[in-house]
From TrEMBL, chains A, B:
Reaction equation(s) it catalyzes: 5-phospho-alpha-D-ribose 1-diphosphate + nicotinate + ATP + H2O = nicotinate beta-D-ribonucleotide + ADP + phosphate + diphosphate
Post-translational modification: Transiently phosphorylated on a His residue during the reaction cycle. Phosphorylation strongly increases the affinity for substrates and increases the rate of nicotinate D-ribonucleotide production. Dephosphorylation regenerates the low-affinity form of the enzyme, leading to product release.
General function of this protein: Catalyzes the first step in the biosynthesis of NAD from nicotinic acid, the ATP-dependent synthesis of beta-nicotinate D-ribonucleotide from nicotinate and 5-phospho-D-ribose 1-phosphate.
Name this protein carries in UniProt: Nicotinate phosphoribosyltransferase
UniProt organism field: Bifidobacterium commune
MF GO annotations: glycosyltransferase activity; nicotinate phosphoribosyltransferase activity
GO cellular-component term (any): cytosol
Length: 441, 441
């Protein structure tokens, strides 16, 4: 990492070589509309949750090539001297709209629409996709876990099982997906998230006895702390924990074994010892299915790691960034699409709405056409418009950045999910919970 | 991202709260040995490839708390004022040894050993695991892909399908795993990697015709460029491509459809047109199985994306960081281990060797004991010592950082894999290709 932070090379080389050729032939200045969408949800998933748009706005603030970046492009001969000149004061001046963070998405939902010149839009492809694909994968997994957990809070503890920077994005996306907090300090610092923590086995092991470790932890952190009780023998540990902290002990954590059975035994033992308010948290490779199976166990909260930060089997959303409309030689906008086998695209700009019946969503409507056609389009009365304006001619709408935006996204996810048919919350494999209807004007 | 870059909060909160308690009770100063290992390989995998240790050395250079970090820990009440004081000039002064980058690993291989005080070692847990878990997952997947690709070069094109910073680490890990280069500019800049690129469908679509796009690209990049030929109709595109660039055209890329059949058709057509030296590269959700199935197709190189950067079904290596030995009250080192169900650990320091029969590895030997026992241990004559010294009392051995280290790791991976039984290169699910023998002295 360099001091003068830039996101401008977090891209694939071809974006700069295409820019170089397009500057030479003039097409770099053509107005363009690009769209982000996915062709399918991960197998059997009912919906996805959009996350990462706030981070996109952050990343674009830093999308300026610094001297080292320009030198690199020049030294490696990636672009011509004229293009280096063009890049010197580069800043994205286009317009971005898209689904809100926390919004549900389905196959072909136009999650993001980017409008600007070909030159400026093409440079953003990889960075936008990286952010949306990973963050939405985590938020989508988180959302299923939160449904399976019911009223019990879920906490992100997955940092160690993904790249150290992904971990920060994962913590944020987990909260968008309905999690209550994270163990990741950098994420808490950067995004103002709740930060939580318990204790590790090494803390018990570094002490001469488990009792010494508990005494030390309670002394430093107070009786409301969470003691880890499965280093040696859980029954002995619970006894020691309540002796050390008293019946006001905040919480105990179990990290191994048959969690449902152990939680019941630990609950009984705590109750017998008078620690009726001491909570139980469990961790240990949990996923949405494990959480569902723990519904009747006396557990108060969950720490979820690996399966959260790796998208619970779907570590990417397979979103793509495609040109859908561009200016022609005569200045008129032309809808375009590729015809590649199994990878064809739908031409034209898009609007997106969700329709409802008896208060529940029954379809996603993607309306495609020219700017004029879309301006004239009248959605039906109960249709909700799914797109918001993130950036207007290079100016970000700051309401979508920062900690408040994450809280809003979290609330929006809860509301948006509640408006889907109840099958959306099923963990059984099935079709997307509402169909996507493409409407070509 | 902040200007004054620090990795010190890329951790879980409990590391700092444990430090706080351990400083208060004195155990923070106890000498400790921590070990990184995994209990199992991903289902059916024959081996894993270590990657990320060079990045660990880089990350530790930045593991110093800046003012914002200290203020955050203080404002959130995570640690006491005394601990803030202790952290002000924190720098890791311990010793790290471990497997080389590019080395094969198996269940219970002591991939990394960290020695220092409890306080300094505990702070590193999450950061070290994040790096090793992700980088090794990608290198392990890459290695299988490279075996399946035979002599044909594999290129990383996966940046868009993982977090934007993961993408950089993935490119580096891919090369450790045997890839030849990456499309990721930032990774190429940071690690001196080969950078490659072709062209996107949007470049064809922004032009008034495919021919215009090809003319523009060849003009900007020369005839040795790679033209993307599946935007509309592949046969027409090949014809146009050779008309535009001549028979000296460098390469064409196919990104959709039945790649084996298309490659054959494209090869025939190119040959007929006299473009006998024009190469064919294919991309499109390739994994090691797809590469294996393309062995007899006339393809010259592969661009691999999603499945590379997500570890081809195993996005983490499930490595853990466990305390194995620590100083007692009397200053004598004591081996320690947790007894948690299914998660018990092996106490004591470790040495690691690989033994050979007829030139091929036949076992991994993990020798556990006290420092004195291990110093006296005599491995058998043909055993290879698998551990190198990465850091000595806070001083990194710089031969393991930078671009040369990546090339060395790549070569080491090839040699190390060649010394495993040939079944290691099988894509069929099976047991680890050599057993790990634990030797308690």
């Amino acid at each position: 990492m360099i001091q003068d932070y830039s996101t401008a090379l977090m891209t694939d080389m071809y974006e700069y070589t295409m820019l170089d050729a397009a500057l030479k032939d003039g097409t770099a200045n053509r107005k363009c509309v690009f769209e982000v969408f996915t062709r399918h949800l991960p197998l059997g998933r009912r919906y996805g949750v959009v996350a990462g748009t706030g981070r996109i706005l952050d990343a674009l603030e830093h999308f300026h090539l610094n001297e080292a970046d320009l030198r690199f492009l020049s030294d490696r001969g990636i672009v011509s001297a004229e293009t280096i000149k063009w890049l010197e004061n580069f800043t994205f001046t286009g317009t971005i709209k898209g689904y809100r963070e926390g919004e549900m998405f389905f196959p072909n939902s136009p999650v993001l629409e980017v409008e600007g010149t070909f030159g400026e839009c093409t440079l953003l492809e990889t960075l936008l996709l990286s952010i949306l694909n990973y963050d939405s994968a985590v938020a989508s997994a988180a959302s299923r876990m939160v449904s399976a957990a019911g009223d019990r809070p879920c906490m992100d503890m997955g940092s160690r099982r993904t790249n150290e920077s992904s971990a920060i994005a994962a913590a944020r996306a987990a909260v968008v997906g309905g999690f209550q907090g994270t163990s990741n300090l950098r994420a808490a610092q950067l995004y103002g998230l709740n930060v939580i923590g318990t204790s590790a086995h090494c803390f018990t092991l570094v002490h001469d006895s488990e009792r010494d470790a508990f005494v030390s932890q309670v002394k430093a952190m107070g009786v409301n702390t969470t003691l880890l009780v499965d280093t040696y023998n859980i029954e002995n540990a619970i006894k020691t924990a309540v002796e050390v902290a008293g019946p006001e002990l905040g919480c105990v954590r179990i990290d191994s074994g048959d969690l449902a059975a152990l939680a019941q035994r630990v609950r009984n033992q705590l109750d017998t010892l008078g620690a009726k308010n001491t909570k139980i948290t469990v961790t240990n490779d949990l996923d949405e299915y494990a959480l569902a199976s723990l519904q009747s166990a006396p557990v108060d909260s969950y720490g979820v790691g690996t399966m959260l930060v790796t998208g619970s089997g779907a570590p990417t959303c397979a979103m793509v960034y495609k040109l859908t409309e561009r200016e022609g030689e005569n200045g008129v906008m032309v809808p375009v699409a590729k015809h590649s086998k199994n990878k064809a695209t739908t031409p034209g700009r898009k609007l997106a709405f969700r329709s409802y019946e008896y208060g529940l969503a029954d379809a996603e409507h993607v309306v495609c056409g020219s700017e004029e056609q879309l301006a004239r389009f009248q959605p039906e009365e109960d249709w909700k418009d799914l797109m918001v304006n993130y950036m207007n001619h290079g100016e970000a709408d700051t309401q979508y950045q920062g900690s408040d935006a994450i809280v809003n996204a979290r609330n929006h996810r809860a509301q948006s999910l509640a408006e889907l048919p109840i099958t959306a919350q099923s963990l059984m494999k099935g079709d997307p919970s509402i169909p996507t209807k493409i409407d070509l004007l």
